[in-house]
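hey
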């Protein structure tokens, strides 16, 4: 007999049959942009493993990577429509709410321990609150990672080396402003389009963590990798607040517990991948150089000033995040 799959929109009583017949299992779709072998895929798989172990026969989380269910912006909309249950956005959250732009400030997050402190101390009051105002709910903080620059023009040691380079960025205004400040020509583009754009010369380069660079095979179409570590981008295990609240309470509890317990494994995988994948990239023939981070930090001061002046509470938010690194 063909099993009828309920969309996540049909929740609560609508998902149940009456009388002695067993309730049909809820199918909860998790859409993300990560390619096979990426940290995003590993993170989602860890969450799915832990969630399904808790959920048993009541519900099942199913993963759909490589933008199968849409790119980041589409997935944010599909969350609100109830067409997917979970997504894993990263930089795009700065376009959802201004507060998330603080993570776009160059070199503001120093380490994963620093990020844990930010989550623990101001996560609920600032970032969760900002997400919920827009109709979303953050179940946990995962990772995209420390970002580095690849390109086909020249090694990048100081900001001036980016002059004129057409560089793909995510669709977030602060990343665009940052690379404009450094002298590059930033080009916002969906992640799924980047490989072809690099291969055909539509863009010269891009910036991403090692896990994204390797899993997307950018090393096949890029000559230079410059270790800048210019931004650390969290990833957010995101749901629609409205649709999540329609789930049975026990399912909500199990999903929240699985989200929390998966975080440490995600951070451990991220740290291990960072070391392993740099070696893989080196063996893949990409020319690698260490950038002058002090030069980038000095060149970044104006973007901090703009964020502090133009975002409501921006100066205080920068100060709060920086204070937790000490």
């Amino acid at each position: 007999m063909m099993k009828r799959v309920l969309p996540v929109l049909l929740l609560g009583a609508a998902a149940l049959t009456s009388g002695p017949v067993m309730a049909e299992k809820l199918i909860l779709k998790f859409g993300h942009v990560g390619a096979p072998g990426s940290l995003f895929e590993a993170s989602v798989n860890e969450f799915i493993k832990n969630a399904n172990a808790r959920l048993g026969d009541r519900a099942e989380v199913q993963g759909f990577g490589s933008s199968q269910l849409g790119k980041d912006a589409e997935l944010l909309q599909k969350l609100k429509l109830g067409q997917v249950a979970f997504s894993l956005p990263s930089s795009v959250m700065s376009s959802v709410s201004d507060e998330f732009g603080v993570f776009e400030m160059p070199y503001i997050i120093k380490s994963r321990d620093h990020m844990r402190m930010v989550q623990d101390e101001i996560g609920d009051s600032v970032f969760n609150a900002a997400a919920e105002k827009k109709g979303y709910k953050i179940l946990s903080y995962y990772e995209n990672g420390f970002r580095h620059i690849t390109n086909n023009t020249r090694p990048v040691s100081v900001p001036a080396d980016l002059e004129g380079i057409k560089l793909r960025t995510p669709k977030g205004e602060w990343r665009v402003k940052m690379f404009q400040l450094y002298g590059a020509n930033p080009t916002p583009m969906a992640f799924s389009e980047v490989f072809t754009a690099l291969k055909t010369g539509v863009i010269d380069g891009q910036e991403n963590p090692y896990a994204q660079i390797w899993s997307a095979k950018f090393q096949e179409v890029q000559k230079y990798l410059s270790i800048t570590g210019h931004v650390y981008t969290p990833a957010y295990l995101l749901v629609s607040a409205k649709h999540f609240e329609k789930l049975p309470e026990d399912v909500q509890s199990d999903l929240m517990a699985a989200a929390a317990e998966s975080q440490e494994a995600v951070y451990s995988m991220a740290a291990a991948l960072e070391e392993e994948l740099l070696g893989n990239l080196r063996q893949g023939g990409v020319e690698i150089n260490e950038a002058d981070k002090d030069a980038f930090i000095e060149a970044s001061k104006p973007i901090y000033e703009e964020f502090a002046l133009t975002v409501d509470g921006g100066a205080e938010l920068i100060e709060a995040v920086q204070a937790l690194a000490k």
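Confidence is low (pLDDT under 50) at residues 1-20. The chain is about 45% helix and 20% strand.
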